[in-house]
Fold this sequence. Notes:
Bound molecules: nicotinamide-adenine-dinucleotide
Strand order of the largest sheet: 3-2-1-4-5-6-7-8
Number of strands: 8
Shape: globular
Number of domains: 2
Radius of gyration: 21 Å
CATH superfamily of the largest domain: NAD(P)-binding Rossmann-like Domain
Number of helices: 9
Amino acid sequence: MGRLDGRVAIITGAGRGIGASLARSMATEGCAVVVNDLGVDVDGSGNDSGPAAGVVEEIVAAGGVAKANFADVSDFQAAEGIIESTLEEFGKLDVLVNVAGILRDRMVFNMGEEEWDAVIRVHLKGTFNTSKHASVYWRKERRGKYRVINFTSGSGLHGAPGQPNYAAAKLGIVGFTYSLANSLGPYGVTANAIAPGAATRMTATIPDAQRRKFGLTTDDPRRSPDNIAPPVIYLASEASDWLNGRVIGASGYRISLYNTPEVIREVASPTPWDLDDAFKLMEQSFRPVLEGRSVFGARKQKD
Ligand SMILES: NC(=O)c1ccc[n+]([C@@H]2O[C@H](COP(=O)([O-])OP(=O)(O)OC[C@H]3O[C@@H](n4cnc5c(N)ncnc54)[C@H](O)[C@@H]3O)[C@@H](O)[C@H]2O)c1
């Protein structure tokens, strides 16, 4: 018996990397999967039906149930088509896994408008597009244990300096996930985000020296995208009702629970702030908590 027997999932960006691994693993657990992938290069250019079709062939050859879909998640109408064709093919939708993504890395001062827009469009708008159309169906149906599983990144959670567009999109996805978690509960939907770490063509764009420093080599089994599947399968299952609106880290053989931003110190004034008091109290109260702890403070300016 599989952990996902009888469930139907759409996995976007499932032609390669983490998404492809999730499609195979979820199918092995009895899930019928829609393997969506536009088949683009890492920067979002081109398109190719080969990757999604190849993953479907593999799953079917192994005895699983899968259907390929080649739509662009960043296109609102095309995203609606993914939900519609899934309902036509399988009669229902239980799980939506938003994995599709691209990169256009550049320091903020060198970044062009098009590079910003392209990354926000695929990650943030793409995640909205599929979730919006799935939520319309779930709101009408209200008869299942529905799941949205979004993909965020440490680049957003920690602010990667060379990825301002990607960091913004990925942290935007966290805010969007919190909003879904708070709005879709009455319809039986939970929404969580995964912050993965795995060796794929996406991490292959990181310069060699940095990759070695962070242990991002492809030959280390801990870096295999297959390690992302266990927490995703758990979230996709009917067992995870209690888990909603959270970010779960998945990297190597570790699964982590992130905290949700919360106020850790506060100063207040009985009247509109006197500027001298604001200067004094912010330094006195906030600085000791942050010194030596801030991930941002750890990065020193080069010049
Ligand atoms: N690999 C990591 O360590 C890592 C770390 C943090 C976050 N992530 C996130 O995990 C997800 C998967 O990354 P990956 O490393 O497997 O990358 P990948 O490049 O191997 O796979 C991404 C897939 O998305 C597809 N895609 C891109 N744009 C699309 C679109 N508009 N419509 C449909 N499909 C589209 C691509 O064709 C590709 O097959 C991404 O959201 C990425 O941001 C990955």
